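Human: If only I could read backbone structure tokens as easily as an amino acid sequence. Underneath my words sits a plain record pairing an amino acid chain with its backbone structure tokens. Take your time, and here it is.
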Amino acid sequence: MQKISLKEWLVLIIAAIVSLGLWFKFSYPQFSFVDLSLDRKEAVARAENFLRQRGVETNTYLKAAVFNSDDWADRYLQKTIGLEQEKDFITKYGYEIFSWQVRFFKELKKEEYIVEVSPRSGKVLGFSHLIEDVAAREETGKEAARLNSEEFLERNFAFDLNDYDFHEEKTKRYDQRTDYTFTWERKGIFIPWKENEGGAKLLIGVTVSGNEIRKFFSETLDIPEKFHRYIEQQVVFGEYLYSFYFLIFIFLITQSIITIAQRRQNLVIRSCGRWFSLLVAFIIALNLASLFNNIQDAIMDYPTSSSLSAYLFIYLVKVIINLAIFCAVVILPGLAGEVLRKEVLPQKPYSSFTHYIRSTFFSRNLTWAILFGYGLFVIMLGAQAAIFYFGRKYLGVWKEWFNLTQFSSAYWPLFSAFVIAVTAAVNEEVIFRSFSISWAKKYLKNAFIAVLFASVIWGLGHSQYALFPVWFRAIEVTILGLLFGFVFLKYGIIPVIVAHYLFDAFLGVAAYILGKSNSGFFYSSIFILALPLVFALAAFMINRSDREEEPKSILNEIQEYNLGVLKSFVVSQKLQGKAAEEIKTALTAHRWDPELIQLAIEEVFR
């Protein structure tokens, strides 16, 4: 990274402090009420104990446990009454936004049990016993079934009929049994969506088959149909925006292929090809490890109509195909971006990996770049918090707990957060900073327009994420992309990769740090965020010279021959009275390797 003046460091520090204040004011409250006291192992134990009390031999079943959030209730409450009022509602009525879902199943058997457990209290929130349609149960009659339901709710949930109105009754007849479902709604709770478009009610319900309580759920928000349709429209619009991104993304990948094909003998490709291959191999290895770390998600979706081994094999093949695609979309634009940077940003060596590959990743210069990345990360947090605050206040914006549920289902959530953060930081910074900005700068001839182009495309690529209205995420990410783009141009690739990694990792582990969780998760989360700092300290202590090796030392036979051709041409042009810069411009226009051009000119005009 180019040398940063004392003034720039002071500006960075002040901006980071202000941003941290904004984040604590606007974003911290969203994490403060998260309670993850009960981990997976304890949740499974509670679910097993519940089933044993019902006479189920859990040792004969396969198990899977995942962490869920009630996205529909969270969406509705945020949209209708706001975030602060949602927290009050949750506290007042003991509503559970999060839960552990534990599945007990057998391969090729329909019968299974699903138990929902509160991560806050360990209480069983819901239960379902799935059985064959032809399974027989004793006929008891509707009145006996309803009485059985009421007694069960009173015994397990302190259910008081005086606090509820009867909501709905359903009867479903099978060949050898009749299932009765009863639901009640909490009195005094009606959260309207829009005028004459319904509202949400707080329900509790039970399904009875003979003398068996086959299904029940505790307090659950019944969302009006109009809201469901509204969300569906939003999702479709998000896919519409994403389709524009995808078309441009394919165009950019094609351009990267063309760039490499035209410059395949370029010195930069020779320097960086092996390094990019090793980097991608490392990330693929991380993702394969993460696959097994998150295998519970896959098992939870396993359809028992097929064999488990066949299902997991197909799942693995899909993952490998996705990783192969990932390999292509990192290496191709990565190499193309390195090549184009030499052409369009020759005075900014730190904006590419080539400089570090040809010198070292263990210099104090890199230490300062990593520390700068930490400052940029904090500024990003504050900027996002301010953007969301404005969106919530004036545009009705709300977001979901996607990152929390995405990682918490893993055996080691912090490893998943680390893998996702590393993958996204490398992948997106290579494509949308290193390549896209360099490519746009070459053809659009303007740095600001190049940064804007890359930022808008990056923003559109996030329009399917868990934030509504969906167009707001594109705007938010575009704004952050502008910040990233200008930091990339001025200070290099390392600060933006570090900041991106920290930002994504923090979103994945923040609930374990700021909410309630066990100490192991808390300290592991801190470690994940401190990893770049560990690397920075190692670079500071080793402190190798970051002077690049001479390009001439890595020439192959073809490049040696091309250098001789160039030198002959430069000599002839010099004899005609042409200046070095004029010759360089002409050769660059004909796509000769910029480094070979520079070597030839230096030797001829020495």
Notes: The mean pLDDT is 89. DSSP finds 21 helices and eleven strands in the chain. Residues 398 and 468 are 6 Å apart (CA to CA).
